[in-house]
Known about the structure:
This protein has 620 residues and is of the alpha/beta class.
Amino acid sequence: MCGIVGYVGFKVASPFLIRGLQQLEYRGYDSAGIAMLCPNEPIRLAKVTGRVSELSQMVQQSSLKGTIGIGHTRWATHGAATKENAHPHIGGTGQVALVHNGVIENYESLKSVLIAKGYQFRSQTDSEVVAHLVVDRLKDLSEGQSEVTVQHCVEAVQESVLQLRGAYGLLIMFRDFPDMLIAVRCGSPLVIGVSKQEQFIASDTSPLVGHTDRIIYLADHQLAVIRPDSIQVLHRDHGRIRPEVRQLSEQVQESGLDGYAHYMLKEIYEQPQAIRNALRGRLDRDNATAHFGGLNLTTQQLRSVERIVLTGCGTSWHSALVGEYLLEELARIPIEVEYASELRYRNPPMDPNTIVFGITQSGETADTLAALREMKRKGHHTLAICNVIGSSIAQEADGGIYLHAGPEIGVASTKAFTSQLTVLTMLALYFGRLRHLSFEAGQRLIAQLEKLPELVERSLECHTLVKQIAEQYSDATNFLYLGRQFNFPTALEGALKLKEISYIHAEGYPAAEMKHGPIALVDEHTPSVVIVPQGPVYEKVLSNLQEVKARSGPVIAIVDHDDPQVQRLADSIIHIPQCEDFLQPIVASIPLQLLAYEIAILRGCDVDKPRNLAKSVTVE
Ligand code: AGP
């Protein structure tokens, strides 16, 4: 939800802090700030409401210096996007500065106690409470002592976080210790880039690229004391521990725009390659099946699975809906799809032979993480379908499958969605071939999957036409997206793409459902995108298209063949290549992504950083 960076070493800290925040801006971009420190000087702040680029200009014009610093780019949870609410926050009268990612649920009661003790609050945030709490504990711990020590600082942080309820990733700087940072994590990610004479801290690995390839993922309830030449890690319950230093995966390459106007457009066009990455090494032609290395279930256990729960949020929940059709159709396994935010609080009766897949691009979505923890607590094997190696969900699940789609920076998910569907298709093949699916059926499926990157490349050829169509409809205020069976989730995903980057209200529906109310919305100002490829329900969807036209609703038809009826009825027609129905959601979502992108551009929206959104929703 927010992006955190920190540096302690021998260079001036601000270049790393600013560049790091730019790479984390996809996590939240309401406001940004940094704090830096020189020995025997007060902590200095620079904060803006708005983008990191504005902060960068401010810092360049300031006299901020120092070889230690922390930074933050914010997605507001408590308090509007103002300078006062921007991080870093100062504790006490300047003894500490901290940045926070997460939500402190009991901050109001803690704040009341601190106010009663005379602490002056400058912001409305929960994070500032922690800053004053640390100072308050530091005062108590060092009272009567000749000096404040590092140990006092460590204990002050440890005692402070014990009072917190909620999720946090904290990075804390101390005025009197200009060569030390303390990081502590519970629920919000923090990773440390390890080097001999300088250390780098960030919310994820992207800012570390180019600085080090050795990293430490801080785990929940771990605290790190970070100095230029040393890192000590303490666990809340086990004391001093030796942290695992990992190799920064090659997947986290410095991802630039490579000439594209936006990350979203780049990632739309990366989909053929992302799908190749998802397929690579997983198709077993000799046995007409697929293979996954990380499910951590024996063949016997896999065969005994009697139900599968698929859970996620947003686009990942749409992937789960497609997964339901896939696994029921190809593997004949009963599937439940659940919003993670609902599942975590429900208590559905589930038989012991139920396994749970959490579907997530970031691996940090709080609701998905919480839902998987709840399912694990009830004894179910949990698996992650995830794009970020080493993310919280990837680490906590009992196993899983990585997408290998490469970093997805654009807030609107595109290549992760089609990669998730590719993995789910292979999973359905795998389960199916362990049960009833024939060798020939498996071979046919593999042949279709091997053609998929080329099908997506051909689907991208509609871009010029989509751009023209976008010009006709960019002023609309409402859209309907209609599809059936495998393409009902496609309709939902197309609607989500449009609304989240163009801010136009759009709703996806099962095409037949239109008659039960939504058709009242249809008029000449409300375009309907109808996904109507050939298949068992083609005629039915065609009837729904006619029902829209009968009410003067403009129709944008997504088709995979020429049909005079559609040509007569539809106002715009976008062709996609023909494929099996279970692959249509992947192929049909390409024009829908492009339509949303082009309309958003015409409306002057910030495609990569849409208002009010963040790439990874790590709060509940
Ligand atoms: C998708 O375009 C959105 N950005 C959002 O719905 C996203 O899919 C959702 O927040 C889940 O994120 P995750 O896949 O990283 O868990």
